[in-house]
Every structure is written in C-alpha cells, then in structure tokens.
User: Fold these one by one.
Assistant:
Number 1:
Amino acid sequence: MLDQITPVILTYNEAPNIGRNLEQLAWAREVVVVDSGSDDDTAGIVGRFPNARLVVRPFDSHAQQWTFAVQQTGIATPWVLRLDADYIVPEATIREIAAIVPGAQIGGYRAAFDYCIDGRRLRGSLYPKAPILFRRDRVTFVQDGHTEKARVDGVLGMLAGRVDHDDRKRLDRWLVSQFRYQSREADKLTSTPWSQLSWGDRVRLTRVLGPPLVLLYCLFGRGLILDGWPGWVYAFQRMTADLILSMLLIQRDLAGGSTKP
C-alpha cells in the first residue's frame, strides 16, 4: 500500500517542525511540500530530504491551498497522506497503513491524534479526529472558520494507530497565529445561523463563558491536570485562544455601537 501513497504537507515558517515530520516519511517515494513563502529555514530543511519536493504557492485560504497541493502538483499516486507540518506519524501507524487492503467502497481513513507539548503526549485534548489518508480523486476541501475540512466521497474507515500533533514553534509565533485564526473563527461564528452552530460555538458566542469553561473542561473533563505542567500549558493555550476570540467579538460589538454585555 505504501507505494500507492504520496504524503502531502503544507508549510509556512515550519522550521521547528518539518524535519521531524519528514524523518518519519523516508518510506515514501515522494513527499510534496507546498510552502506559502516561508522566511525561515523551512525550505533549507526540506531540501535535505532527497524524497521531498518543494512547491511554493502564495497562501489564500487553507481550502484553496489543499486543493492545489492535492490536485495540481503532479502527484502520480492514487492515495494521499494529508499531513500538517507538526504531525508526526509513528512507526506503528505506518505499519498499519502499509498493511491496508482497501475495498472499492473505501474513500479514505480517519485518524485520532495524540496532542504533545514539547514532545510529551497528553492523555487527552480537544483536537478532533480527521481524514488523513484518502483517494486523491475522491476528496474536496471546503473552508471552515480558520481551517479546512476534507470531504471524502465513499466510506471512511478509522485507523487504529494514532498520529502525534507536536508543534514546537515559539510562543510568540503561536500567539500571532491565534490572532489570525480567531479572526476567521469570529467571521464564521457571526455569519452562521444560530440553529447551525454547535453547543460549543454557542457558548463561545456568549463572549464570557467560553474561556473559563474550556480551561476547566481541559483540566478536569479531559484529565489534563494529571499531566503536570504540559497539561496546564495545553489548557492555558485553549483558554487563551478563546480569550482572543471573545475580545475580537466584543471589539466588533463596540464598533457596531453595542455596549451591553
């Protein structure tokens, strides 16, 4: 199965992550890396891996970038392994993928993720399962808030093996990214009909309940208080992201003339 798969990765200033990702993909004949114009050493690191091919495309949206990466970069294999730069595929998961014999009805496979803080796996997170392995001719990408969703035509299987999400970028970079991401989340939340919002999004729209509730849920609902400081760091990250969103929503309220909480 592995000879039928091309891993595809999107990057932008991913020097702290991309090398560890590519090290786990030595089995692939080719890895396609679509970069959005990084000004760090991302390109240099990719160039050290003989099976990696770098393509540069200015970023417009995640959905458009993924559509380009999967459909317009000359990939020859029928299957694509869709990876963020901070995804690390463990050996056990690679062995599982190698042994797959998919039926014609199978369009792809989802995976669950182990969230890591500085390489330490947490016992839980809010990170959702997602399709990562799919037939190239059966996937489309749609924008969903700050990120994209892959829509796969056909039955989606579920991998038993997990994938590590292990982002090692500096805190200041993370904060800059969150401001950009939460601005797009605010656009999504304020333009989506109430009836179509999840309960979590409705809580976030209150402006005040989201940050404390997500902190408590991470620490006690997901048990991260038992993971020591890495668990606290993750819980603080999720609370900070919701705080940024709340402030952006309130800023829009004030700009529109509303002063009521």
Number 2:
Amino acid sequence: MPYHAPLDDFRFLFDHVIGFDAVAATDRFSEASPDMVQAILTEAGRLCGEVLAPLQRVGDLQPAILEGDKVKTSPGFAQGYRAIADGGWIGMAASPEHGGMGLPMVLQTAVNEMMSGACLSLQLNPLMSQGQIEALAAHASDEIKALYLPKLISGDWSGTMNLTEAQAGSDVGALTTRAEDNGDGTYAVTGQKIFISWGDNDFTENVCHLVLARLPGGGDGTRGISLFLVPKVIPDQTGALGAANAVKVVSLEHKMGLHGSPTAVMSFEGATGWLIGAPHKGLRAMFTMMNNARLGVGVEGLGAGEGAYQQALTYALERKQGQVPVSGGPGTIIDHADVRRMLLAMRVELYAARALALSCAKATDMAEATGDAAWAARAALLT
C-alpha cells in the first residue's frame, strides 16, 4: 500500500499547536526557519513515499534471515538504508561537531514518524543509532566520541542497545553478563543478550553494541552495572576496521510482524569492549539512550497507526458491499455512519498523539537551547 506523509498536519501543529516558533527563536536553533522546515519535511515525505514505503510489504514477505552467524536482510533494505544515511537523516539532531545537522528534536521526531509509517521494520535501525549517538555524546570519553560518533552519524556504522537477558527479563539488575579488565584500557565482555533489534545487518561496515555488564566487585542489583561499547569489528584509532570481535548472532526471533527487522540473540564471548561512563554507573548512562528511545518508540507506534489509518481509509473508499444509506456518495462502505465514526476516531487519536509527541520533542529542544529547568522537567514528565 502507498504511504502519504501527513505534511499538512505537521505544518498546522508546528504553527498553531506546539509553537515551534519559540524553538526557532533561540540562538541554538535559529537556522530552523519556516522555509527550511518546509523543505526538510517535504523531502522526508518524498523519501518515505517513494523509497521506503515499497519496502514495507517486502520485509514481511521476505524477512531477514540468519545464514551461519550473519544476517541477510530483506531485498531492497540496503538501498533504503543507504538513502536514509546519505540524506543525513540519521544525524539530524546530532552535533555538527561530529557531522550531524544540529537540527531540533521536533524535526527529527516528525521525520521518524513518517519513516515509521512508511517502513517501520527498516526505521528501527536508524532509531537505535540515534539513541546510541545521544548516549555516547553524553557519557563517552573524547577519544570514543571522536572515533565512533562520525561513523554512527554518517550511517557507515550502526548502533544497538543490549539490556535484556533470558533469565532476567525486565529485571535488569538480575543480569549475569560480566566484564573483566584487560589491563590495557579495554574489557572482556562475556554473556548473552536477547531481543536485540537489528543486532546485525549486511549493509553497514560495523555494528556497535552498547552492552550492560557487571564488573568484579560491582555488587548486586542495578547499582553494580556498568556500560560497555562492544563493536562487531574492532577499529583502530583512525577508524580503519581490523579483526572481528568475539561477538556473534546466535539466532533470530520468530515474530508475528516486523519480519524485516532482525531481532537477535547476541553472544559475547570475551568480546573486547570499552567502558562508557563511570564504573558501576552503567544504567544511568544507558538511560540516556532509553529516554531517547521512549519518544522514538512512541513515535514509531504513531507512525504505524498512521499507516494503518491510511490503509483503512483507502479500503473504506473502495470496498462496495450491499446497499448504502447515502445517495450521491461513492457507494462504498464509507457511506455508513459507523464506518465514518471509526475512521474519525482513528484520525482524532492520531492527531492528538502527534501533538503530544511533538510537544515532548519541543520541551527537549527548549531545555537544550535555554538551560531552563522547567523545560527539562516538562520533557522528563512527557517521556
């Protein structure tokens, strides 16, 4: 089914509901003029409708598969991902210091919704990278930032988030993955993680895993957990790729949907990793990525809802069944009042959810641009 980006909805919400002009009035985001915003949304809508939407059905019919310990992605996904990366869409809100556009989170949120509506399976990949970019920017050393952020922002490398373990479930403090100091600034990470979205692919040069693990003496519970960056392929200081790391995909989950997105079981077998943030403070650092993911995943649901609404509307306009109570109408089931009520309810709920998501993104932007604690508190409340 085709996807039509709701550009008019975004423009109305920007101009008349969330007050995007306040974001553009700050020094931090002064370049986000109305003309720039319109150009970005229009081009993103074109990409979603013409490039990503045709991949939605392909991903379900020809899912990602595991060949040996390597993932083979759905046909066309590599080209779709490259279109996202080459357009600079992954690093929209990232710092220009490392190659990002430095645009407001409001714009990134709108674009992420459109991509989710067009092809959610593929959009999950850049969402994971965006969260990792934010986490590394906030907590990594300068050396790690200089090496990894430009690669993640460009899309040459992709990122993942590794929290859940089979025996722990949602109880993160019960994890058993461990890390031991190698004595050279690196750590040996050993353990297994499950439900890892886009744990591997065949279209980026490297996959960078943020992994929660426990150092010796870390103590029980969440307070003893540390965070490590574990790349699939170990780079040197210039970013040139060297030896494969001791990390591999064990299996892919069998899911009811989103077949184009490989959800992996990952095995770390003494894999080389680098500590991110302070020892035993890993959950705090990981929550930077998780907070980003809260808004991002919420918007993915919104995008999926928009796509479903568009398909329902198209079906209602085309489906003929029996007599209709309206004369002069299209003669399809949309002429029935209850069908119109259901479609209108979908439209209203989507519009409200969109306004809420963009308001959350605006609060994040204003907190960054002004340093005002009230905006930060609003962003925290809405996430």
